[in-house]
Structure formats: C-alpha cells, structure tokens
Amino acid sequence: MSRFLNARYQPLQAYVPGEQPRDAGWVKLNTNESPYAPAEGVVRAAAEAAAGLNLYSDPTCALLRDALAERYGVKRENICAVNGSDEALNFAFMAFGGRGAVFPDITYGFYPVFCQLHGIPFREIPLKADFSIDPAEYFGVNGLVVIANPNAPTGMALPVAEIERILRGNPDGVVLVDEAYVDFGGESCMPLVEKYENLLVVRTFSKSRSLAGARLGFAVGQKALIDDLEKLRYSTNPYNINSMTLAAGRAALMQDDYYMENCAKIAATREATRDALTALGFDVLPSQGNFLFAAHGCMPGEAVNQALRKRRVLVRHFAKERIAGYNRITIGTPQQMRTLVEALRDIVSEGENP
N or C: which end of the chain has fewer CB within 10 A? Predict the structure, then answer.
C-alpha cells in the first residue's frame, strides 16, 4: 500500500472474489454463476439500449422497479435497484449497522468486510455442529442481523417461520435476509415485508437470472427502509445502474418462466451430483442453492481442490479452519457435472495429493 492511504483503511482485509480465467478449456464451477445463457431477447434489449449511451441512465430505475413490483406483488416504493446485490448490502451496513452487526461465522465473506470498511462492530455466531443456524441465538441483538438464506457456502436454508422468529426477536433492529440463492429451492421472506417494518430482503440477478456480468440486484422492504437506502444511493452514485443493464433486467423479468425452468434443472442436477459425490465417499451438506459443499474424509479440501485444478476443473476452497476440509462446487450443466464426478472418481481412487 502507499503511504497516502487513509489510516482507517490500512488494516482492511478486502474480499477475495473467485477466480475468473480468460483462457478456454476450464470447467468453471467456482463462482456460482448460471451455466445457462440469458433468455432470448435480453441481449437484444441491452443492445438496443446501447444506442442511448450518450445520455445518463434513469436514476429512478422506474421501469425496472415497476417490473419487479409486478413480479413480487409489492409497490415501486418498496424496491431499491442496485448495481449487484453487494451494493444493497453495502448500503444496508452503512444505514443500519450503527449499533453493530451480527451474522454467522460461516457465511458470505463480504459481511465482515463491510463492517471493517465502515467501522461497524460485529459479532459472528458459530453455526451448530451440523452447520445449521439456531434462530434463538439471534434474539435480542437489536442491531443489524444478517442472514444469508440459503446460506453460503453451506447451501443450507432456514424455513420462513424461523426467520420470522428472528424478526420478532429483534423489534429494534433491521433483519437483512440475503436471498441470492433462494430461487433454487429456498423459501422467500418477501411475503413478510408488509408485516415487518424491520425486514429487508436482498436479491440478485446474477444467479437465477443469468446476469452475473450485468451487475444487477435489488432490495425489498417497507418504504421507510427503502428511503434510507435511496438516500445513500443518491449520495454516492445516483446513476448506479447503466442503461443496458436496466433494459436487460426488465427483459429478463418479462421471460421469468424460462429462468424458473432453468432453476428447476439446476436443482435436479444438484441432487444427481450430490448422489454421485456421496457414492464416492464425500460428505455433502443438504443444499438449497446452486452449489454443493462437499468434503472427503480421506483427503484435505485443498488437496481435492488442487487435484481438480490439474484437470482444469475449478471449484472454490476456503481456508477458514472450520471448513477447510470442504469445497464449494457450483452446479453447471449435466455434462460439466459428469466431468467433475469423473475427475473426482480418479482423484479418490488414486488418493492423489497436490
């Protein structure tokens, strides 16, 4: 770092994104992207919007928010559109983390980074031995509670009734439910928005709607919470979503059946892959996301990761001690998953080390 960096940010441990190789030939199962292309017409809508790139995009994101409101049965005023769901998370930590934040010890790695970035004190609550969340441990926090549901990297999900217990147990704090993976089998808390003034639901177009490269997300909550996020958005970057992404997102919502069918295909491929990995001796957590979290009792997680990499198959390994034996495996096409399973069969049979 330079000697000019603000002392406040010098200790910051930045988030490490997944690898994005640019050369061909990889089976890329490391960043939870969709293996399926955007719906027909989405790319065309983005290209048509490009004709107006000499003008700023709509800062109100009105057409997109109207389409989202219709899709999810809320009002435009209940939606904040953002440049990827990470932007909504960033705004939420800024807006609602003044009294601290609480989230699981094994979850999305950006949560502690946002806390460090904004000087927010935080507490990580250990998951239970089976990697599940005990809702009672989140009662009485009355700061910002953040729950990824389904959780990442485990893929495990809480029923909405358990999230509702957390909401009732924290009447004076915001409960943020990060639903990045909910379309693959989880249960959405969106229907609770009208009932709870302290609920904020954050969603993304990156996973289930095949728009990871477009960078689009949104938050849903009661108007007062959304107004708080909008205040921060207009104070930082009111033109936060470009015209092409706005058009692509709206077009994607118009073809929602296509994406929900893809989610069902991914969920079916996930379950078939889980069965195949279990047959190879892997311990695989029950996932409601578009990924699996798997460990083999006879091989370290990093050894499995590196052995796959030698075969040009990318999965995600996390060095955190408690989960170091596991790898997170994105669900790709059936052919990609067959390639993965065949590679793992060889690795396991050979007892390979890096």
Answer: N
Report which residue type is found at 150. P
Q: What is the pLDDT of residue 354?
A: 44
Cα separation of 186 and 191, whole Å? Answer: 14
Cα 192-290-66 angle, rounded to 5 deg: 45
Residues 330, 308: Cα–Cα separation, whole Å: 14
Letter for the amino acid at 278? T
Q: Of 142, 84, 82, 145, nearest to 111 (Cα)?
A: 145
CA distances 286 to 93, 97, 127, 148, 293, Å, are 29, 31, 15, 15, 8
The torsion angles phi and psi of 230, rounded to 5 degrees, stand at -65, -35
Beta-bridged to residue 255, according to DSSP, are none
Block means of pLDDT (10 residues each) for the chain, length 354 residues? 93 91 93 96 97 97 98 98 98 98 98 97 98 97 96 97 97 98 97 97 98 98 98 97 98 97 98 98 98 95 97 96 97 98 94 57
| Assigned token pair, 222 | 């009661």
Q: How far is CA 7 from CA 3, 112, 115, 121, 236, in A?
A: 9, 18, 16, 18, 22
**Residue 201 contacts residue 195 (beta carbons within 8 Å):** no
- How far, in whole angstroms, is CA 33 from its chain's centroid? 10
Q: Are 64 and 214 in contact (CB under 8 A)?
A: no
Task: Tell me the helices (H) and strands (E) count for the chain, helix number first.
Answer: 10, 13
**What is the reported pLDDT for 120?**
97
Q: What is the DSSP letter of 321?
A: G
Do the beta carbons of residue 111 and residue 265 sit within 8 Å? no
